[in-house]
Each structure stands twice: as structure tokens, then as C-alpha cells.
Specification:
heterodimer; A: about 625 residues; Rossmann fold; FAD/NAD(P)-binding domain; five-stranded parallel beta sheet; 33 strands; B: about 150 residues; alpha/beta; four-stranded parallel beta sheet; 4 strands; binds flavin-adenine dinucleotide
Chain lengths: ~625, ~150
């Protein structure tokens, strides 16, 4: 372990700690040489190295130096900040020092793993010098603390919303569930048996809905929609409008009932139409998806009545003509079924036609392969006289037990034909008198592009999943949306259910295509995140928000105009030495810290705490300086 | 300009929710790129005023790549504001005789490792060809001179 300590006279006393990371860093970066050089920088009081800075001895070294008063701020040069920035901030707190007097230099992912030899050493040195330059300008910051109401509101009563309601209420949190339709269960209730397990969707929805309905802490408002939104994490205020029930089913009493292919109908509310307000601490968005609606003429859709979507086919199969014998629908025997995959999914620019709004669904909908294979197998098992032909681009039966669906479909003699996206199957009337009214032609790449024609009594389009239209919520709550139109989490892996709007979390297929198992898991994850937010009775937010220097501010309002979060910045009149002055003010709860205001202030009077322009300027100078 | 000349420094302003983890993913894959690239983490690059970019070039930075989240920016509307600002920076660069290709606005996701490497390589070619910004800058911006 190398230590270089020197006596300097400087306002800030930086301690720099350089990690070997086993050999991950030190095999490529000469950490001792870097330590020596860095110790000579202005403001640096001590520079040390350690095999693993994140280990207990590594952290203790920092804590000791802080406690002794030798240093008052810290730079650790190690792996990516996502891994250990929080670890080292905690070490500062344990030493009784403000955790924001900390800066991280990433010399593993961005140095030793990508550069070698002297160049790696020089770059590590520059990055640490930049971190020191910033550290010298850091100021102590306090997290923003907000009281949190122990109450959660869930928008959407599909499987994800119901699961979130169940988990939140079982943790003792009061829940309001707002569902726009008269039914609970979402699209799961429109299915029969579920891939890959074969469970009855009705049983799943009914048991979950009953548990939720019976829980004393849950209030369900069906036929309701959020029409107004204000406030922030811990204390949101939602305006809700409950409309008339258009279930088409007589009102039910007691615990409600499950109506096949509609959903679970809860007990009717005494006061059907009303507007009301919900005050809540966190919001779970569980608004789900909508199946792709094929364009007129797409694979013969709306042109031939024998062309149907997969959800429709699932229902047809479940409600098929009663009795034993061959598969017949509406009195017509179905001998051949053609199922076409990837309808409305995996669109390729230049090949597929955009919708009216110029959008393509470039994503894979993830459920359709399994659901199609599952339906195909059901047909083959129950009606061996019916042939099934699957036209696919790729079979994507990802996930546990899903690949079995493919092998079992093959075993039960489902016939597979593969096509390239630029040469999709063509559905047309069958001129031959072989009994099937349609035919599907394709260049089958499994037989080296041979043109194959298949007779079909029914063509099933495996439609993909699209985000349901929640543009009103997106606009109201400023929810981030990905390029695919689904709501977008902060980070797909590290913060998968959180949104950049604090206090609003995501559950289920409003975020991405998922199957019911995944949507249910997402509902649970959202519930855990939501209850963690509410657990302490208050919430602490990162202090990285805008700050106005009242000395410099002239109140010209440019920052207020540039602010991307309505209400986060506003102008306020102050009495300054008997004179009335107007200055910008930040609402710490609403400000997201994006910095849009910083760039436009002619007086440079606004900055983001912990990420100031002068800190960046100091870092750039340190980087630009010759080594 | 000789191709072997040491390329000037490239600054990357990388968003903490997309491009910065994207750059880390390049590291995790152990894919090398030139060491004249320095990455600074930002919450949202919409923070930086026009002058910040010009001053970086004045300090000797040869090229800047803003690696944003693009339209997937978690701060609603920030990308659009940023894109408009960068257009103004291009204008300022032209007036000062700075080649606008030294600055690039792009979107890099958390797993866009290939796109990251391509951007870095392209900017490296540009700064190698152009040399340091000081050589290029006219002392007085033409607009102010007239
Ligand atoms: C054809 C097909 C077959 C499938 N087969 C299977 C299968 O075999 N196995 C399997 O595991 N999965 C299957 N799935 C996937 C399954 O349907 C989904 O995983 C599940 O429905 C997702 O649940 P969710 O709660 O996320 O969304 P949804 O089911 O879409 O529920 C969302 C709910 O939110 C409500 N809502 C929407 N907007 C608002 C608003 N603004 N305000 C209030 N409420 C709102 C909706 O009315 C709905 O009740 C299939 C999907 C399709 C399309």
C-alpha cells in the first residue's frame, strides 16, 4: 500500500484513494506512480492506494483520515460509480462528514479495461486530477426531506395492478385502485388457458381480484379515470372522474363475479357517476398494453372474414360449437388453420408500412410466439383432424418452460414455414375446390425458398403488443416515454421500476411486453419499491436540484421560461433592504435537477447543486492540461 | 497533417442514465478505444450553456461528443431543447472559424457499445485531421470584426 502525505495550505483538504481492484486496475495502470503525481496537486492533502478500496480496511482508511481532520473531502479512483459511489458516500457519513463532499473517478471501466500501458496510467492520472478539481469546489449538501402519506394509488386493474394492490395492502398500506373499464383483470381476462403452464386465466384473475376486493385497506374505483394531477412524491393529489358503467351486465352484489372474456366485475358502487380527489404518497402506473390492430388488407384482415387476430381466435376456440367431433366455428368445419407470427411486431423501416402517426413497432412483443404455439397445440390435441401451419420469422419462446411449447407443437405435427420479412406470406382466395376458402403462399426458407401454398379455412394473425394510450397521463405527470412508445424506467437493469418522476413507479406491460408471470412479478417489484418509499414516513431525495444565487439573480425570468417541470421554478417578490425585488425561486420538491434553467441565465445565477458549471469547468481544465 | 500525429483530446459529456453506463458497458466488454477520450458524467447535457462548449475548445479540447439519451431522455423535453442549443453552438463555432464537426450530438443507450465505439472512432479521425482547435480559430470572430 502506498501513502503520500504532505503539508499544504489550502481551503479544501482532499484525500485521494486509488484502488488496485485486485489487479483489475493495477495490472494496467501504475497506481503508485499515479499516487505520487496526484499527491502533488493543489488541494490534495493525502493520496493512498489499497488493493480493494471497497473492502472494510479500505473504507476504514478513509474514515480514519476524515476523523483525524487531516482531510475534509474524498476522491476515490476505482470502478464505475454505479457500483461503489454509494458505498463511499456512506463511509463519509460514518465518519461524521457530509456525504456529498465526495467525488468518484472511474479508472476501471473507463481506463484499465479499455487502455493499456503508459497511456492508461496517464489517462487515470488526468481523470483523478479532474475529480480532485471538482472535489475542491464541492459544498456540503443535505438531502431533501419530504413527509410521505402512507397511501398508494394504482392506475390500472390488470394482473400487474392487482398484484401491486395485493402486495401493498398486505404491508399495511392503504390502496386506491383506479380502473377505467368496469372490469378487473385487463387482457389476462380475455384469455382462456395460459402459456406455458396451462392454468385457467379466469381462475388466476378471480382469485387475485377476490383477495384484493376483500382486503379492508383497498378501495377499487372501476369505470374511473385520473383527470387531474399535482403535487410530488409523498403527497400527490389526483382528481378522478367516475363514469357510468357500460359493462352490459346487471349490477352484482357481494364479492363480484368473473365474466368470461370480460373480466372480474366488482360489486356496483352506490353512487355511479362522481368526481373525487385522492391524496396519495406514491403512484403505481399499471395501465397495460393494447393488442396491435392489423391494417385493412394486412394479410387479408377485414378483407376476408376468415382472417382473425389471435385474441379473437383464443375466444373462438374457447366458445367453439358445443359437442364432440371436429373443430367447427359458426357451423363451418375448420380443417386447416394458418397462423402468421410477428403481425405488428419487429417492424423494419423500409419494409413495413408506418401507421398514421408515422410509427413502426420495431420491438418484439415477446408473448405471441408462446401464445401462438400454445393455441396451435391445443388445436392439435383436441382436434387431431385440424392441421395447423405456422408461418414465422423466428421462434422466440424465451423463458422458463417456454421452449417446450415449441418442441411439443412440433411433436404434435404442427407444420412450420419460415419467411423473410421482405417476403411475407400472402393471403388470398383459394380458387381450388379443395374445401378451404383461403390459401396462404410463402417462400419457405426452411425448404430453401421454395414457393409453398397452404389451404386455410381460418387465418390467425399473432398480433403484437402496443402500449395502451395513456397520452393524458403522460402529459399530466410528465412521464418519460421510450422510442417504442412504452413508459420508460430510469435504468432497465439497475432501476427497472422507477421513473425519473420521483414517487411514480411502473408495473407490467405499460413498460414493455411481458407475459402474465412477468407482469405479476413487476407488480410485486413496484409494490416493494412503493412501500420502500413510504416506509419511513418521509422521503429523502438527492439534493441535486437547481439553486438560485440571490445576489446574482436579476429576476428576468429566463430560467422560469426554460424550466421543463411546471412550477419547479417561479418568480417571487422579496423585500431587500426596504426595496421590493423579484427573484427566481426553486421548488425543491418539483425540481428534477435537469439543468435546463442553468444554461439560459444571463447572470449565471442558477446552478445544479453538486453538478455546477464551475465544477465542470474545473474538470475540463484539468483534463485539457498537459500531463 | 500527418496521420501519425497524436490526436487532440476528446471530451464526452455522457448522460448518467444512458451513455455513461453505455461507456461502462464498453469497458466491461474490454473493447479498447483511443485513450485521448475523457468522459464526464452529466445528469442532462441541457445544463451546459453555449459558451461552455466554446470555452472547452479555447481550453484546448479538440472534439466534444455529447452522448445523450436522445428522445429517451428521462427529463421530458430536455433533448429537444438541447438539440436547438447545439444548433446555436454550431453557428457560434462557424463564426469563430472552428470546424463544427468538432462537436457532435448523439444518443447512446446503456448497451450501445458499438455505437459508442463508432462515434469515438469518427471523432478521433476528425480531430486527427483537423489538429488542435487553436490552429484553426480566427482570433476575432468574423461577426464581431465587421
Ligand atoms: C393474444 C395474447 C395472448 C397472450 N397469451 C398469454 C399466455 O398464454 N400466457 C401469459 O402469461 N401471457 C399471455 N399474454 C400476455 C398477458 O395478456 C399480459 O402479460 C397481461 O395481460 C399483462 O397485464 P398488465 O396488468 O400489465 O396489463 P393489462 O392486462 O393490459 O391491464 C391493464 C389494465 O389497466 C387498465 N387501464 C388502462 N389505461 C388506464 C387508465 N388510463 N386508467 C385506468 N385504468 C387503465 C385497463 O383497462 C386494464 O384493465 C397474452 C397476450 C396476448 C395479447
Amino acid at each position: 500500500m502506498k501513502r503520500v502525505t504532505k503539508v499544504v495550505s489550502s481551503d479544501s483538504r482532499v484525500g485521494v484513494y486509488i484502488c488496485h481492484c485486485g489487479g483489475n486496475i493495477s495490472d494496467h495502470v501504475d497506481v503508485n506512480a499515479v499516487c505520487e503525481k496526484i499527491s502533488n496537486l493543489d488541494g490534495v492533502r493525502t493520496a493512498k492506494t489499497n488493493s480493494f478500496m471497497c473492502s472494510d480496511p479500505g473504507q476504514e482508511m478513509i474514515i480514519e483520515d476524515l476523523r483525524s481532520g487531516e482531510i475534509d473531502r474524498v476522491v476515490v479512483a476505482s470502478c464505475a460509480p454505479s457500483l461503489h459511489e454509494a458505498t463511499f458516500r456512506n463511509a463519509l457519513s460514518r465518519a461524521g462528514v457530509n456525504p456529498y463532499l465526495y467525488e468518484h473517478a472511474n479508472i476501471r471501466e473507463q481506463v484499465s479495461w479499455v487502455h493499456h500501458g503508459e497511456a492508461a496510467t496517464l489517462k487515470a492520472e488526468r481523470l483523478i486530477a479532474a475529480a480532485v478539481a471538482k472535489a475542491r469546489l464541492l459544498k456540503p449538501l443535505d438531502p431533501i426531506r419530504i413527509e410521505a402519506k402512507r397511501h398508494a394509488t394504482i392506475i390500472g386493474g390488470g394482473i400487474a395492478g392487482l398484484k401491486a394492490a395485493k402486495d401493498l395492502s398486505s404491508r399495511g398500506i392503504e390502496v386506491v385502485l383506479i380502473e377505467k373499464s368496469p372490469f378487473l383483470g385487463g387482457w389476462t381476462a380475455m384469455l382462456d388457458t395460459l402459456a406455458p403452464t396451462g392454468e385457467k386465466a379466469a381462475d388466476l384473475v378471480s382469485s387475485l381480484a377476490r383477495e384484493v376486493l376483500e382486503h379492508p385497506l383497498v378501495t377499487i374505483h372501476s369505470c374511473s379515470q385520473v383527470t387531474g394531477f399535482e403535487g410530488s412524491v409523498g403527497s400527490f393529489r389526483l382528481e378522478v372522474q367516475k363514469g357510468p358503467s357500460d359493462s352490459g351486465v346487471p349490477p352484482v352484489k357481494d364479492r363480484g363475479i368473473f365474466i368470461p372474456f370480460r373480466g372480474y366485475l366488482p360489486e356496483e358502487d352506490e353512487q355511479p357517476c362522481k368526481a373525487f380527489v385522492v391524496e396519495t404518497g406514491v403512484i403505481v402506473i399499471a395501465t397495460g398494453f393494447k393488442p396491435y390492430h392489423p391494417k385493412n388488407g394486412e394479410y387479408g384482415f377485414a378483407e376476408f372474414e376468415e382472417v382473425v387476430t389471435l385474441p379473437r381466435f383464443i375466444r373462438m376456440l374457447a366458445e367453439r360449437d358445443a359437442g364432440e367431433g371436429p373443430l367447427s366455428i359458426g357451423g363451418k368445419e375448420i380443417k386447416n388453420i394458418a397462423m402468421i407470427h410477428c403481425v405488428g411486431s419487429r417492424h423494419i423501416p423500409g419494409i413495413h408500412e408506418e401507421d398514421e402517426s408515422g410509427k413502426l413497432n420495431e420491438h418484439c412483443s415477446r408473448n405471441c410466439c408462446s401464445a401462438t404455439l400454445h393455441a396451435a397445440r391445443l388445436v392439435r390435441d383436441r382436434f387431431p383432424g385440424t392441421h395447423v401451419f405456422e408461418f414465422y420469422r423466428d421462434i422466440r419462446t424465451y423463458g422458463r418452460f417456454q421452449e417446450d411449447l415449441y418442441s411439443k407443437a412440433s411433436e404434435s405435427n404442427v407444420i412450420f414455414l419460415r419467411f423473410e420479412p421482405e417476403s411475407p406470406p400472402v393471403v388470398s382466395r383459394n380458387p381450388r375446390a379443395d374445401g378451404s376458402s383461403l390459401k396462404v403462399a410463402v417462400n419457405d426458407t426452411l425448404t430453401f425458398g421454395e414457393r409453398v401454398e397452404v389451404p386455410a379455412d381460418l387465418v390467425v394473425l399473432s398480433v403484437g403488443m402496443q402500449p395502451s394510450d395513456v397520452s393524458d397521463l403522460i402529459e399530466m405527470m410528465k412521464l418519460p416515454v421510450g422510442a417504442d412508445g412504452f413508459l420508460q424506467e430510469i435504468h432497465p437493469k439497475l432501476r427497472p421500476v422507477e421513473l425519473s418522476v420521483a414517487g411514480i413507479v411502473l408495473a407490467g406491460t405499460c413498460q414493455a411486453p411481458m407475459d402474465t408471470g412477468e407482469a405479476s412479478a413487476a407488480g410485486s417489484a413496484a409494490a416493494v419499491k412503493a412501500s420502500a418509499i413510504l416506509a419511513k414516513g418521509y422521503v429523502e431525495l438527492d439534493p441535486f436540484i437547481a439553486e438560485v444565487d440571490l445576489e446574482k439573480c436579476r429576476g428576468n425570468g429566463e430560467c422560469v421560461k426554460a424550466c421543463l417541470r411546471q412550477g419547479a421554478l417561479y418568480l417571487k417578490d422579496f423585500d431587500l433592504h426596504g426595496e421590493k425585488v423579484r427573484k427566481a425561486q426553486v421548488d425543491p420538491v418539483l425540481c428534477t435537477g435537469c439543468g435546463a434553467c442553468v444554461a439560459v441565465c444571463p447572470e449565471n445565477a442558477v446552478d445544479i447543486r453538486g453538478w455546477t458549471i464551475s465544477q465542470y469547468e474545473a474538470m475540463v481544465e484539468a483534463i485539457a492540461r498537459e500531463s | 497533417m500527418l496521420a501519425t500525429q497524436k490526436a487532440g483530446k476528446i471530451l464526452i459529456l455522457a448522460t448518467e442514465s444512458c451513455a455513461y453506463p453505455g461507456a461502462n458497458a464498453v469497458g466491461q466488454a474490454h473493447s479498447s478505444y483511443p485513450e485521448n477520450v475523457f468522459i464526464l458524467r452529466t445528469r442532462a447535457p441541457v445544463l451546459f450553456p453555449e459558451r461552455f462548449y466554446i470555452e472547452c475548445f479555447e481550453k484546448g479540447i479538440s472534439g466534444i461528443i455529447i452522448m445523450s439519451c436522445g428522445v429517451e431522455c428521462p427529463y421530458h423535453g430536455a433533448y429537444e431543447v438541447l438539440a436547438r442549443r447545439i444548433d446555436r453552438v454550431f453557428e457560434m463555432m462557424r463564426k469563430r472559424g472552428l470546424d463544427p464537426t468538432r462537436l457532435r450530438l448523439t444518443a447512446i443507450c446503456t448497451v450501445c457499445t458499438r455505437a459508442f465505439l463508432k462515434e469515438v472512432q469518427q471523432m478521433n479521425e476528425i480531430v486527427t485531421k483537423l489538429g488542435p482547435p487553436a490552429a484553426e480559430r480566427t482570433d476575432t470572430p468574423p461577426a464581431e470584426a465587421s
